[in-house]
Amino acid sequence: MNPTEFQGTVYRSTGSWYAVKPDGTSKFMACRIKGKLRLKGIRLTNPIGVGDRVLCQAENDKEAIILHVLPRKNYVVRQSPRKKHFLHLIASNVDQAALIATILQPKLKQGFIDRYLMMTEPYEIPVLIVFNKADLYDENAFAMYEYLRDIYTDIGYKTLLVSAESGDGIPELLLNLEGKTTLIGGQSGVGKSTLINRLDAKLDLETDFLSNYTGKGQHTTTFAEMFDLNEKTRIIDTPGIKTLTFNHLEPEHIVHNFREIFQYAQMCKFSNCTHRNEPQCAVKKAVEEGYISELRYYNYLQLLEDTEAQNAWERLKDM
Ligand SMILES: Nc1nc2c(ncn2[C@@H]2O[C@H](COP(=O)(O)OP(=O)(O)OP(=O)(O)O)[C@@H](O)[C@H]2O)c(=O)[nH]1
Ligand SMILES: [Mg+2]
Ligand SMILES: [Zn+2]
Q1: Nearest residue CA, atom 32 of ligand 1?
Q2: Are residues 105 and 146 in the same domain?
Q3: Would 89 be classed as within a structural domain?
Q4: Within this chain, do residues 153 and 278 fall inside the same structural domain, yes or no?
Q5: Mutation pick for ligand 1 pocket among 100, 109, 208 (CB with most ligand atoms within 8 Å)
């Protein structure tokens, strides 16, 4: 390696500049991409994301050029809101994701958890579902939390109940983050940044306080950013998600991301079974017998229909 070259990790990206922390140092370098980066496979609206490992060439002691992106262990993408068939890279090389949800304020959007899991299942990224704002739950909200907790723990996701406000459950959350790089995601306003501030008061991230003041209801966090909690523990704060749609997927891919439904799908009579009304469908039978939760099955059907409709619309637009 040329003496001016170094490897590092991307912590933040603001348009054309990337904050890269060279390995073994604590000072960031401001990095740019020169020319076109050749990337195989996926078409991305942003060629480099938070968590990417990069090879750079220093131009001086503050600035460098990114020469290339080292192979990714995994990545999380979502459909680009603007460019068809392009994907937006949310983060790369994560050990797990913490999906932050709340039953109240804002109300949990029906189906949101399963939509989020559509982004993490392709790489089998472990997901911790964190129900925040426990201090606000009344009896009904608590019952809803318990209902969801049971559904998701039954199929292998870890769940936690916490309150960034009171501090309840925070030590256990920290324990679950220790030694890992965790992508923090969820709807806007669920308390992602507040939780991160709870985990490390030094970070002092901006939370909803100001946007309440301007009354515009904008997302408070506007780009993804990685933080070190300690030498081995990293967290990535991300902007809140309003809706998640999947025009980059084919309908038959949906079932792959519903882990327990996929298992039963192997036993359906027809290999192209969509698990709606086909005869001898092992999935429907498992739902009727209570082995698959009705909520998950309903969300599967909903996502399947959404994806079919979106794909049909894309084809019509192309004609
Ligand atoms: N009562 C209560 N309020 C909370 C809790 N956690 C966060 N909040 C409040 O919820 C609001 C939104 O918090 P943020 O941390 O900005 O939410 P966010 O998920 O980062 O939002 P985006 O950046 O827009 O995605 C703030 O007013 C917080 O004070 C909690 O545990 N209990
Ligand atoms: Mg935020
Ligand atoms: Zn079936």
Answers
A1: 133
A2: yes
A3: no
A4: no
A5: 208
pTM over 0.90: yes
Ligand 1 binding site (Cβ under 6 Å of any ligand atom):
132-133, 135-136, 163-165, 188-194, 207-208, 219-221, 239-240
Nearest-CA residue for ligand 1 atom 7 is 191
Cα–Cα distance, 234 to 220 (Å, whole number): 21
CA of 102, nearest ligand number: 1
26 and 153 housed in the same domain:
no
Neighbours of ion ligand 2 (CB under 5 A): 192-193, 220-221
Which is more confidently placed, 111 or 214?
111
Q: Please report which confidence band the pLDDT of residue 82 belongs to, taking 50, 70 and 90 as the band edges.
A: confident
**Total number of domains constituting the chain:** 3
* DSSP code for 183: E
- The answer to the question of residue 309 being in a domain is yes
Is 88 within the bounds of a domain?
Answer: no
The CATH number covering residue 210 comes to: 3.40.50.300
Give the domain extent around 62.
5-69
Ligand 2 center–CA 14 separation, angstroms: 16
Q: How many CA atoms lie within 13 A of 227 on its CB side?
A: 19
Last residue of one domain, picked from the residues 206, 237, 268: 237
Helix (H, G, I), strand (E, B) or coil at 205: coil
Quote the CA–CA distance of 144 and 159 in Å, as a whole number. Answer: 13
What's the CA-to-centroid distance between 165 and ligand 1, angstroms?
9
Whether 173 is covered by a domain: the verdict is yes
pLDDT in tens, 30-68: 999 987 776 666 788 888 999 999 999 999 999 999 999
Q: What would the pLDDT profile of 257-309 be if each residue is shown by its tens digit?
A: 999 999 999 999 999 999 999 999 999 999 999 999 999 999 999 999 999 99
Closest-CA residue to 51 (of 89, 25, 81): 89
Closest CA to 100 of 11, 177, 36, 195: 195
**100 and 184, same domain (yes or no):** yes
**Distance of CA 200 from the midpoint of ligand 2 (Å):** 15
Distance 68 CA to ligand 1 centre (A): 37
**Residue 132 CB neighbour total at 10 angstroms:** 26
On whether both 216 and 287 belong to a single domain, the answer is no
